[in-house]
Amino acid sequence: MKTDREIWEDFRNGDKKALSAVYFKNFKSLYQYGMKFKDDPEFVKDCIQEVFYRLIKSGRNLGPTDNIQFYLFKALKNVMIKEFDHNRKQETVKSEVLTFHSVFRWEENQADTDNSSTKEKALSKALGSLSDRQKEIIYLRFEKDMSYDQICQIMNIKNDSARKLVFRAIKALKIILEDQVENPILFLIHLGKKYVF
Q1: How big is the chain by its Cα radius of gyration, in Å?
Q2: Cα 183 to Cα 172: distance, rounded to the nearest angstrom
Q3: Domain ranges across the chain
Q4: CB-hemisphere CA count at 13 Å for 63?
Q5: Residue range 24-30: average pLDDT?
Q6: What is the CATH topology of the domain spanning 105-196?
Q7: Over 70: is that where the pLDDT of 182 sits?
Q8: What share of the chain is helix, strand, coil (3-state, %, to 5)?
Q9: How many CB atoms lie within 10 A of CB 180?
Q10: Helix pair 4-12, 68-90: axis angle to 10 deg
Q11: Under CATH, which architecture does the 4-90 domain have?
């Protein structure tokens, strides 16, 4: 089985099978990531199409990568910010801001949250209290397993800022959960493996 680096090289060289593989393997995660910023399926799909249009147009001028998902996430976020700002300038209402909203996998797969356990609801509530940037960094670091260097590029922040943001998010979760569960750290680790981290 080919590595991401090999598939990306084939893609850069115009291999249509590689293009198809990159698109279909990553579309769902790109769509989910985009929807976390703006609950507008058509806008998100248009942005994903724009990402691939630009990639195809760039061809050999694309840089190498050994992590295609990271490369695409970064490209999608850049396109979404540009398109969002452009659309906002065209409209009379300019108060809306492109912000990160969701973290949990079960929020994407489970329509009826009444079936969630008390602990899951507690964690969902705690995560809901985090800032948008904290939610995004938790998602990228633990849900998508991205390195701090990759997160810094996607979120346009410095490495020490990224580490502080994760530390503060985990600390905030621990404080919020202390009143609701016996051992918040073990609880976060356990639920993290199951849902978020």
Answers
A1: 18
A2: 14
A3: 4-90, 105-196
A4: 8
A5: 96
A6: Arc Repressor Mutant, subunit A (1.10.10)
A7: no
A8: 75, 0, 25
A9: 15
A10: 60
A11: Orthogonal Bundle (1.10)
